[in-house]
Amino acid sequence: MKVIVDFDLCASNAVCMGIAPEIFEVRDDGYLYILNENPGPELEQKLREAVNGCPTGAISIGE
Ligand code: SF4
């Protein structure tokens, strides 16, 4: 799985970090960082929850 974030849509509200801190981190500089761009299957559930939970629809999943 590849994590794709549209940074133009991201509002840096850290909802994704709350769901999947292994993948997403909003730092003190106010920007979102992707910690793991190619998470394994053990993180699929959390990644899908983050996709669904992101209030701006900024996250998608690639191949
Ligand atoms: S939940 Fe969406 S808008 Fe919020 S920090 Fe994550 S990607 Fe950005």
Describe this structure in words.
By secondary structure, this protein is an alpha+beta fold. The chain has one domain: Alpha-Beta Plaits (2-Layer Sandwich), CATH 3.30.70. It contains two helices and four strands. It has helices spanning 15-19, 44-53; strands spanning 2-5, 24-26, 32-34, 59-62. It has a two-stranded antiparallel ribbon. Strands 2-3 form a two-stranded antiparallel ribbon. The chain is globular and about 30 Å long. 19% of the residues are buried. The mean pLDDT is 98. Residues 5, 10-16, 24, 26, 32, 54, 56, 58-59 line the site of iron/sulfur cluster (SF4).
Could you name the ranges where pLDDT drops below 50 across 5 or more consecutive residues?
A: none
Rg, Cα atoms, Å: 10 Å
- Shape annotation: globular
Helix content: 10-25%
- In percent terms, what proportion of residues is strand? 15-25%
Number of domains: 1
Q: Just name the CATH architecture.
A: 2-Layer Sandwich
Our count of helices gives: 2
Spatial gap, N to C terminus: 5 Å
Mean pLDDT: 98
The total count of strands amounts to: 4
Pick out its properties.
single chain, 63 residues, alpha+beta, Alpha-Beta Plaits, two-stranded antiparallel sheet, 2 helices, binds iron/sulfur cluster
Please outline the helices and strands:
Blueprint: E1 2-5, H1 15-19, E2 24-26, E3 32-34, H2 44-53, E4 59-62
Antiparallel strand pairs: 1-4, 2-3
The structure holds iron/sulfur cluster (SF4).
